[in-house]
Amino acid sequence: MLDATNDDGRAYLQHRAQQFRAQVARRLDGSLTEEEFRPLRLMNGVYLQLHAYMLRVAIPYGTISPNQIRGLADIADRWDRGYGHFTTRQNIQFNWAKLVDIPDMLDALADVGLHAIQTSGNTVRNVTTDAFAGAAADEIEDPRPWAELLRFWSTDHAEFQFLPRKFKIAISGGKRDRAVIAAHDIGLRLRRQDGRLGFQVWIGGGLGRTPMIGKVVREFLPAEDLLPYVEGILAAYNLSGRRDNKYKARLKITVAERGLDVLREEIEEEFQRRRAVFRGHDEELLARLRDRFAAPVFREVDETGFHAARAASGAFRSWIDTNLSEHRVPGYASVTVTLKAPGAVPGDCTAAQMRLIAELAERHAHGDIRIAHDQNIVLPHVPKSELPALYAALREAGLATANAGHITDIISCPGMDFCTLATARSVPIAQELADYVRARDLDDEIGKFDVRISGCINACGHHHLGHVGILGLDRAGVENYQITLGGDGYEMPAIGERAGAGFPYDQVVPAIGRLIDAYLEVRESPEERFIDALRRLGPAPFKAALYPAEASHA
Q: Which residue spans traverse the membrane (predicted)?
């Protein structure tokens, strides 16, 4: 079990970096071909992208310290182009790494207790959770100790290093899911039943070329059985998952082809057999981890200055109303710092911005920083008395955009500007759509509206789960964009349905503009979100807006 917070863990990470240094040397002198080198680099989170190598770094369950994010900033400045890109799996990617420099980057990560192990390959990827964990008002229990337990258990687990395909786990601790558990190979939802803590367990979710919403395999799993049960799922999948076709190798396909009931029986059999070898060591470790994730010492907060500032400034009030989430402790709030300012690349964060976030977290937020799967940053524990000063500092740095969850808070993959797998551009579509909305001054009027964009069918932008999803494809050498409607990863998990024929690049934003106009016309009140209007009316009025020529001939 890897604990990167102690000397032994860091020594191991440095050993891994040295191993990779030797492998890089053999690749550079020609001793290893690219095909031979590929599995070695993937084990260290290194991809060959369109223009350069990319290093993907795990930020376990999205929690990062000021010292660690400063370490990322230093890496961005020294070995990249002064920025990093936060992803939908709470990772960070450095897109311009030189292969010869990556071992030094791994060494630098080890110095701050971070690594790139299992951020690629057919193994258990970074375990993700709610960016508001430990702070949310509706939380049953902080899920991060459980996520860390899963990370400890899965890292370098000998049995599960060569699964049929990559494997993703998410865990949610709130009454409202904020971790998109239904779109993961395993989704875990903390709950209490008859006073006992446990999990609702989902399996078989995932996006990509065959998007599926997961299914509940266990309504209630006692908390003490988590590791042997998860191990049972992975063992059953490892034995029965498809290895003859990588497009059919994910757990979701195994569930679909073999049936949930059949797989449940195999999981239960593996679980019963494996539970016997879990003799309480995991429970002892969990107790230590809970201490590590103890809440900061909260204080009584005088909110007088906060309320005065809110009344005095419309801009501050707009930011408060949009980017704050309710905290479980009176006098505190959780703050979302969106990386979606006008002209910004969704998820990109400069080294200077990282250092500022570190400083502000130490000064105003108990030193706690989270990376959210929507490519934003969260400061989970901010006294309301500190909010005016925090806002002023963020605004000066261009980080106080009041659009969390709005139509301009777009999730986007890097697309064809970087990725070798992409078939179309993503980032320019996101930027142009946000510019269009702002030019019409519609962001606040539209309100909550989830737009997600992917540059290929691998769906790294999670377009299937957007209220509106945009998928870029290649059609005979020309970019073509499909639009999906009605996706949802949270309240009512659903895969968006394709609206119709795709659009050329220059017609995508005008098409979304017509969709927006149709929504504003048919909504019952400003409080009715687009997704609610779609569920009430069905897709017909929105398809008519997207395809007016077809509607006129109907």
A: none
